Amino acid sequence: MTTTVEHPHRRRPTRRREGRPWTFYVLAGVFIAYVLALYGPMFCIYLLSFQDIRGGLVFPMKGFSLHWFNDLFTQVRTGDVKGGFQRSIQLALLVTVITVVVSFIAGLAFRRRFRGDSIVFYLMIGSLVAPGLVLGIGVGLLFQYFGVSPHWTTSALGAQLSWTLPFGVLIMFAVMSRFDRSWEEAARDLGATPWQTIWLVIVPILTPGIVAVALFGFTLSYDEFARTLQTSGSLNTLPLEIWSMTLNVTSPSLYALGTVTTIVSFVIIGICLGTIALIQKRRTQRAATH
Amino acid sequence: MRLPRSLVGWFYVSPLMLVLIPFFVLPMVVIITASVLEGDGFGGIMPFFTTQNYIDVFGSGLTFNLYFSTIKFTILTWVFSLIIGFWVAYFLVFHVKNQLLAIGLFLVCTVPFWTSNIIRMISWIPLLGKEGLVNMILQGLGIIDKPLEFLLFSDFAVVVAYVHQLTIFMIVPIFNSMARIDKRVVEAALDAGASRFDIMRYIIVPLSKSGMALGSIFVVSIVMGDFFVVRVMSGGGSASVVAALYEDISVLQYPPAAANAVVLVLVVMLMIGLILRTVDIRREIAR
Fold first, then answer.
1. What is the largest CA-CA distance in chain B?
2. Which of B118, B183, B224 is nearest residue A131 as measured by Cβ atoms?
3. What part of B 221-260 touches A (C-beta under 8 Å)?
4. What domain count does chain A have?
5. What percent of chain B has pLDDT over 90?
6. Is A33 on the interface with B (CB under 8 A)?
């Protein structure tokens, strides 16, 4: 979303100040403290998840093993973590695909003003800020009213989309408003059909924005809790499993789960960034051969 | 043949509406309807109109305590995340001269966002607990002789967990709007003899207002709608509006919960409306 344009810059012949102002050092301190507070606790639990069987919830660390990871996936009392994982990833992928497609199409609409566009816009803001549990209860009651039993692939999917879509559309909105319309007009002048214009001109140029929407969609869904609580039906997603674990389990299994979910998140980011890099590389190669 | 413009627009947003109507508009209609009906006390809702649910909500002193506590957490979290977020973004945009480094450091701030919020919250337990790292270190240094009790399962822990989770929602939009400030404006102000305080007051704060507004919307709506962090980090000592709502739902009291929910949604919308008044968010996003 950050597009910084380098302006032709007139350099002043003499620098006004020598060295850095004192505020630099103060703010650098603030920044470092923030980053430490951000990562410190997380690294503590990653570390503590590798204790052996004597391990507890606090330091000092007792031994070193993979015991609690094994415990996590084999013990009954830790719940259906494996199933939760599978459902969460499937649901998140489904949400990602729908979010990308729908917010891209909606983004096309928001490039121009149209009658009633404010209604859609504020509906989206409303959906974004509505308290998750309230929305979940509403969806649950709605399904009950129509006699449909809630399931993670129907009610939970819809409840999550009502939260990921506004995010997605707002990002597309920001990305598309910086899209140069003349490229589109050029394509049209050269005889491209509307479909070709979208598929061969707009989509490739907006790829980074689309990947950003995908990343947001995936993470927001994978981590979504409040909206899913009343709508997932009898089978739990991963955050719901984690929630019940925080209430019942008091062993480093909980921390092991934290380590595993973090690894999964990083694999997903890696795949996304790798895809962008690959697309960029192919694009430059294609540009070079032409 | 050219279709009228508004028809094309509505055609493009129709998939979005196909999700928002059944999963936002209708659920809200259902909740509003349920809030004025009678419950049978066993999870059923009977088709008799009543205003009793609202009378109960406004007549109970508990409601005001809950709102007081939730709004207190919201304001504290908002203030801390805004201050930290603003200065972190300011540091990255205006003090880190190497742009690549600035983007790298920005990514360092955003990475934890991609990991589970619940896990990030419980990760404070080994630090703040009675036998946690902070108490161990403070005792080891001889600063205190018995563990500080207020660190975990307290209002303090709740605010720490919120700020830890939500500051990123401030940093990203503020960073975005600051990165779009033309550096030449700042230089021109310096040339015209403005002090650094003037630059902050007249250029940077007004031009990053949209980012602050957007960040505030996220933070306020998330804290107002939360019940998880309060429940776990306060150790049951504090409650929030949604936590109380959840209690009602667990004992199948749908109509009272619905009345509570309607009031909460109105309060949240009012707060978001106030934030939106300060800035034309739509124009700012498109800028």
1. 83
2. B224
3. 221, 224-228, 232, 242, 245-246, 249, 254, 257-258
4. 1
5. 34
6. no
A138 and chain B in contact, CB less than 8 A: yes
Assess if residue A3 is contained within a domain. Answer: no
* pLDDT of B88 higher than 90: yes
Task: Evaluate whether residue B48 is within a structural domain.
Answer: no
Which 66-95 residues of chain A touch chain B by CB within 8 A?
none
- Find the mean pLDDT for residues B135-159: 85
Q: Given B24, B34, B232, which is nearest A135 (Cβ)? A: B24
Please tell me the distance from the alpha carbon of residue B93 to that of residue B96, in angstroms, as a whole number. 6
Residue B122 covered by a domain: yes
Test B232 with A1 for CB contact under 8 angstroms: no
Rounded Cα gap, residues A214 and A217, in angstroms: 5
Specify the pLDDT at position A290: 65
Average pLDDT over residues A233-253: 81
Model confidence at A8: pLDDT above 70: no
CB B115 within 8 A of CB A269: no
A64-68, A156-160, B51-55, B63-67: least confidently modelled range: A64-68
Report whether B20 contacts A124 (CB < 8 A): yes
Stretch B122-128: mean pLDDT: 85
Mean pLDDT of B110-125: 82
| Reported ipTM | 0.87
Domain membership of residue A282 (yes or no) is no
B206 assigned to some structural domain: yes
Provide the CATH number for the domain around residue A124. 1.10.3720.10
* Domain annotation covers residue B6: no
Contact criterion met (CB below 8 Å) for A135 and B31 = no
- A24–B contact, CB cutoff 8 A: yes
Helix (H) / strand (E) element for B38: namely strand B37-39
The range of the structural domain enclosing residue A147 comes to 28-264
Window 118-137 of B: residues touching A by CB (8 A cutoff) are: 118-120, 122-127, 129, 131-133, 136
- In chain B, how many domains are there? 1
pLDDT attached to residue B81: 96
CATH of the domain at B89: 1.10.3720.10
* Residue B152 near residue B124, CB atoms below 8 Å: yes
Mean predicted confidence (pLDDT) in B106-133: 82
Q: Report chain B's mean pLDDT, rounded to a whole number.
A: 87
| B105–A31 C-beta distance less than 8 A | yes
- Cis omega (within 30 of 0) for bond into A60: yes
The parent domain of residue B115 ranges over 61-286
Res B220: pLDDT? 94
Contact indicator for B154, B237 with CB cutoff of 8 Å: yes
Residue A112 covered by a domain: yes
Looking at the domain assignment, is residue A1 inside a domain?
no
